[in-house]
């Protein structure tokens, strides 16, 4: 079965707006990263939101948990801002059963030459394939 | 305990010689990749050889197997050219017991902007941490 | 005689602060760009300020003009934020005589893979060598 | 009037073939470089050949000279391998009159992160606009 990838935004996907010099969200870079990494593992990608994780609400986290529960895949990777990754992890640990959920992100946007995102995504997909489902 | 990383060369570490237009080996790029990926997992790095895997001999493979057996670490990542990765894997599967050995490499040199190496290294380190030791 | 390069900041030299997600100034990237471009033209580099050009004051512009007048070199390249480049150009046109002054910058920071900075710097150094001194 | 750009190949446009590890020519990278540099100067691009300049024959150089003479543009940039750039320059200096011809290239392929090509192209386009036509 495929690995489910949920996109929520975060530094990972920030772009540079050259007109006002601000970082912002446009589209996810997941597809190009998977292509760059020559990923052959089947994945199903869905964008749930595109936000800075400092702006993530309790409702947003509930939505992520709900999507993890409802999807048929048992191995899930979530891209997420690093600032509140721990909060989302706590919600998911309480609500999602019998699935392997790996949250990943980046300290530096993909679009910067020095981004850690490609390394992190490689790790996350490997962990999702090998770590046990969490039971209760 | 740390993860042992053995470097053997391969596309991964090829550089461009701007004087004659050929690809060649100089130093490994492992350290900069680990820094870029903000790796915090303890690693011990040792360069065993710096060669194109098409030129790897049976003696070279025996040396790699010997180093895997002798090192005290139980989790090992080997960077290797992709052309004969399978041959080395076969030798290691026969000779190295009770250790997790992951062989990785790249289709495109690290020094090219489009390299898959950072993704592959992230995956390899994750697999080395989570896959079981191989028993006989 | 060498080309004088004055650095004033701008998008060109912005870095990504991975702790707070903001862009900021640290050091100039001029030296690495000149090395990348294999520049062999003698240059003298001096950092006058490291600011966003929206924050550049009349005093800052007078300082830049003064430095252009005082330096012994007759060919000058200034790196500058794009937002108020025209204002500085106007001040320099009024105050600096008998010198070729080229103002350059970037729409995207050097540290982004897609930056236009290397192209612009190459152009600026070429224009500084070939355009006539401005007389009054 | 536009600047004419003639493409002849060279290190500039070499790609990495990940199946055999060799460098080869596919398509030119001129268009993406001009876009990256946000070039607004009108250009007319034509690929004359895609070869390593060590393999360039006297007939090839005559062809380049003929194209420079025949095109209606008076400002010309030629991308060329660095190994025999001087030979082509000598042929063009003899045969092409009343035009500004700038030959440029790269020591490192564009596809490498550390390429000098973007800097060189920026310089070449600036020189083509400002250097005088060569008379006889």
**C-alpha end-to-end distance of chain A:** 23 Å
Structural class of chain A: alpha/beta
Tell me the greatest interface: A-B, 21 and 21 residues
Which consecutive residue ranges of chain A, at least 5 long each, have pLDDT under 50? none
The sequence of SSEs of chain A as H and E is EEEHEHEHEH
**Mean pLDDT across residues of chain A:** 94
Reading side by side through the largest sheet of chain A, how are the strands ordered? 4-1-5-6
Helix content of chain A: 25-40%
Query: How many runs of DSSP E, i.e. beta strands of chain A?
Result: 6
Cα shape of chain A: globular
Show the helix and strand layout:
Four copies of one chain form a homotetramer.
Chain A: E1 3-9, E2 14-16, E3 23-25, H1 30-36, E4 43-51, H2 58-70, E5 75-79, H3 85-95, E6 100-104, H4 117-130
Helix pairs in contact in A: 2-3
In short:
4 copies of one chain form a homotetramer. Chain A is an alpha/beta fold and 136 residues long.
Could you characterize what this model shows?
Four copies of one chain form a homotetramer. With 136 residues, the first copy, chain A, is α/β, with parallel strands linked by helices. Helix content of chain A is 33%, strand content 24%. The first copy, chain A, is built from four helices and six strands. A four-stranded parallel β-sheet of chain A has the order 4-1-5-6, with helices on both faces. In chain A, a hairpin with a 6-residue loop joins strand 2 and strand 3. In chain A, helix 2 (58-70) packs across helix 3. The first copy, chain A, is globular and about 45 Å long. The mean pLDDT of chain A is 94. The interface between A and B is medium-sized, with 21 and 21 residues.
């Amino acid at each position: 079965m495929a690995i489910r990838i949920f996109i929520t935004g975060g530094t990972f996907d920030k772009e540079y707006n050259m007109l006002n010099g601000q970082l912002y969200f446009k589209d996810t870079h997941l597809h190009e990263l998977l292509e760059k990494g020559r990923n052959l593992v089947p994945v199903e990608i869905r964008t749930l939101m595109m936000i800075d994780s400092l702006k993530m609400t309790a409702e947003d986290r509930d939505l992520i948990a709900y999507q993890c529960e409802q999807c048929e895949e048992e191995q899930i990777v979530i891209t997420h801002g690093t600032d509140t990754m721990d909060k989302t992890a706590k919600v998911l640990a309480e609500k999602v059963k019998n699935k392997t959920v790996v949250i990943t992100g980046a300290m530096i946007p993909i679009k910067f030459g020095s981004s850690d995102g490609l390394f992190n995504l490689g790790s996350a997909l490997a962990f999702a394939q090998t770590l046990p489902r969490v039971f209760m």
